[in-house]
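[Automated response] Your request has been received and processed.

Submitted sequence:
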Amino acid sequence: MVQTYHAVPVSAEPNDVDDGRADEHEGSALLGDRASTTGLAASDTHKEGHATLTSSVGNLANTIIGSGMLTFPRALASAGIIPGMLTCVFSGAVGGFGLYLLSACARKAPHRRTSFFAVASLTFPRAAVFFDAAIAIKCFGVSSSYLIIIKSLLPNVVASLYHDLTPPDINPPEWALSGRVWISLLMVVLLPLSFLRRLDSLRHTSYIALFSCAYLVLIVIVCYFRPLKGMVPPGEIHLIKFTPSFISTFPIQVFAFTCAQNLFPIFNELKANSQKRMNIVIGTAIGSATVSYEIIAVFGYLTFGTHVGANIIAMYPSTSLFIAVGQLAIAILVLFSYPLQVHPCRNCLDKVFHFGSTTDKFGHEGVEDEHGAGDMTPLKHTVLTAAVVAGTFSIAYFVDNLEMVLSFVGATGSTTISFILPGLFYWKLTKDDPNRNKLLNTGALALICYGFLILIFCLSYNIYNIVHPTGGTGLA
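Generated structure:
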């Protein structure tokens, strides 16, 4: 478990680990205690959230864990077992530290109305709209890629299931082998999920998606001890051996922990959202993702060695029903991750389109609900959601490969919201505070530098791939 999040000393609070039923006054007191430990002023939080620790962890973990986990065995093959495992833990720790800094900054916005726009308005007000625009573009691109993954994966699943469950002379209907048909049908499920206002409402689909991840973990473990007929024979296995492909696989590990776009909604909705409770959410989500990635990476690499491919699930024979169900599980995981990208995309677009016409300095307009959150009007909510869903569906319907576009979006958007902005926000809010934690302040500056280094490296690598195409994995 990553322990980065406990760098700030906290006092004992017996109610911090209860079932979330702390009363309103108690929750506000907890917020005040936590704000003082970070050197930030306590926020004016009068309303209590409704989300539990379990649902918050589930949604954050589902935001983290995606199709990127399929490439981790290849990452180990590019450097060896020991460096590959260390870089995975390092990437998770750095990502978690960025989340911790964001949760500390969140306490400056009152009434559980924290957002990137709200915090940016307190730190870099003139750039706030550009930050939200970058996040919206990033989430829009990722949600489009999710639909493209589903479009390419489900026809293979159908073919595999027909191969195993039906007589040889029975073939699947033509429509069932069309990815476009599948994403059109699945919009019946995704539309109502995308229109949900609160992230906590997606907790049940997040649980299903995380079960799908657990199934992939089961596949790599079982197939290591009991190889399936038709599997690729293993290549060499190295404890330490760096190869040129490490240049492309390391950024994938870095971006595999991206989830900052949903940190603020989780903070706003969590019951008694003290820093200690937020640390539990962040630590559990990052920790579980790290453990899952490590298991998939190690067992996948030990199974195939240097012969492992960029997509571990594709290394197993699709004629096996056990593997076909695994492919279906991956499709379900990606399917239920889609609404988790639409939610922050819609909220950020709201700030971009209404920049300059908001009713307060935190960029909120419209009615305030019973939890103190500034909500969009029903019409605005409907229009923005429909625009995001229609746009991502149209791209996925007509485009088969977004790799290059997502490489640039990931290199800039993911790096900005995961490393650069958390460091900048925290440093700006605490640099003049005489009671600030100097170690955390220095860590924030280091995170900013790290973010810019990753951004420059990834952009340079993507530009190099344009000039010298290699067919490598995109850095989305």
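Summary generated for your ticket: The mean pLDDT is 82. The chain is about 65% helix and 0% strand.
If you did not submit this request, please reply to this message.
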